[in-house]
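agent> fetching stored inputs for the 1YM docking request
agent> found them:
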Amino acid sequence: MSLDNNKELLNVDNYSDDDIHALEDREAVRLRPGMYIGATTEKGLHHLVWEIIDNSIDEALAGYCNEINLTITTDNAIIVKDNGRGIPTGINEDTGLSTIETVFTVLHAGGKFDSKVYNTSGGLHGVGATVVNFLCEYLEVNVYRDGNRHYIRFEDGGKTVVPLNIADSGYDFTGTEVKFKPDPEIFKDTTTFDFETLQRRIRQMAFLTKGLKLTIKDERTEVYEEFKYDGGIKEYVNFINKKDDNHALFDEMIYSEGIENISIPNPDGSLREANVVVEIAMNYNNGYNSKILSYCNNINTTGDGTHVDGFKEALRRVLNAYAKDNNLLKSKDDSLSQADTWEGLTAVISIKHPNPIYEGQTKSKLSNSEARKIVSKIFGITLKDFLYENPSVAKIIIDKCITAQSARIASEKARDVSRKGASKSNSLPGKLTDCISKNAEECELFIVEGDSAGGSACDGRDNKTQAILPLRGKILNVEKARIDKIYGNEEIRSMITALGTGIHDQFDIDKARYHKIIIMTDADVDGSHITTLLLTFFYRFMPELILNGYLYIAQPPLYKVTKGKEKIFAQDDEALNKIKNELNGNYEITRNKGLGEMDWTELRDTTMDPNNRVLVRVEINDAEEANEVFTMLMGEEVGPRKDFIQTNAHYVTNLDI
Ligand code: 1YM
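agent> prediction call returned; pasting tokens
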């Protein structure tokens, strides 16, 4: 739709500057929706819901609302309803429009109508209700206030079709209800909402806002769920722990909350005072992994950042001080390292910050330096008090840390040995067939199941940019092994050295020797198991690799069609059907189970050649989702795991590269 078309809709005699301005905003948003909601993919579609819910959450954080209801209707519209004060119904001085119409039709850059203290919006720019309206087929608002129901309706990307009016009266409650249907002309990929995506985020918001009741109803399937956690993030920690088979080392939850006042700059350069709110819950289980989920303003900071640094700093500092004071360390010099204090740790860190700054490629890492000090101080005091008030629990924690420390020291010795051993020859693992180029950006590492497929891959590769690392048999399950055993594992060691990045706290993405790491396994149960184990390893030890989009899964063709001497490979069922239609009769179809069923030229042409192959990029949008997924993947049932690896679209995206 062009601007000219819209001008026709105005009364040309008396259109005002404001009208023109509103139209320009609408055009700008509809022309480049990605700038406002990230993308017009399924993710962008769901972003619309977060924008509207955020206004309700804000009302809850302000203390006026204790229930939010989300409904997905049978025709894929969304209804969000809250029991807050209701959007004010008067006229806005600046716009001359009603406040309600202003909230939904004026782009408020710079926060003129942004009364929000904390920008809780799902990541991007907190662009709010107006952008949602501009991207919808229709949007209608019911505001219950002063006993009346105030109604307004917009259509065709935010044009007011029913002006604000009092529809009826006699209500004894207040609140806001927004119903909207995304415009399929904008959301070309899909306009179908995913129940699980919405449900997961609703549950997360319920954990992060204690006492707030959130409900979700899917009228397409008649599923209804309620979430309300009076214990807030304490219940979140228990929920995370319940998902795997570890048990808590003690019943007590360590819980810390506090507020600190800071000065933040206004747009005009002056300063204003505002509060940073900190909330942390943690405990330990008998496992080896740490699960630290972090949030800023209810947004999952998957890249962690200064709030998490402050937490880790305080944890190490206070545990060391307590251990020394109570003579619990073997020798006075053997301080616990940060990583020694993480084994079996589950923690949720949630801060509210009036002026958060995010960095990193995915803008998911908090970088405000004062957040580190504030979290470290507030949590440090709580932890110290907790340890002195619960000496028997303190002993359990310190013992756990000391065990981790011994394992670490043992593994460092093992690593030294392997380093010395390696430095005699080339420091790269012997099994690696490296590529010629040293420009990591163009280099690819294929991690291949088995020596024979490894051989074909070596023959079929482009030796300038493609390196091959064959793995023998199954790799260690890092979910179930402790750190010294992991470092001692031959297959894992050769992956670490080939990649060049180091792992854990020594990880450095800039040292990656390849920007594409491609897992290539057979399309059978063993193959998907190996893929799972590798994904788990990368997720636990090098999550940055995934966050930066370096990890891929190769997709060998599923079928081979033979007709006489001719062989044709089909990527999937769709491709197979096409081939069947083209060939008339007299062909044989076999399912391609292993990489070994192709010779090296076939492997090259179908699976390795960048011009032909299909790769799946591994993505993790949300650490909680990933934790859930990995627990499921590591379960005993092969069926769901296999389905997941082959079909899960949330977690992996298909790319034709
Ligand atoms: C389903 C979406 O938008 N609820 C909502 C929004 C507002 C208020 C209450 C509100 C805010 C204030 C005062 C205030 C908004 N008001 C505005 C603005 N639910 C939903 N509930 N009274 C009511 O912040 O002072 C923007 S959002 F700008 F009009 F104040």
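agent> quick read of the result: The chain has 20 helices and 24 strands.
agent> awaiting further instructions
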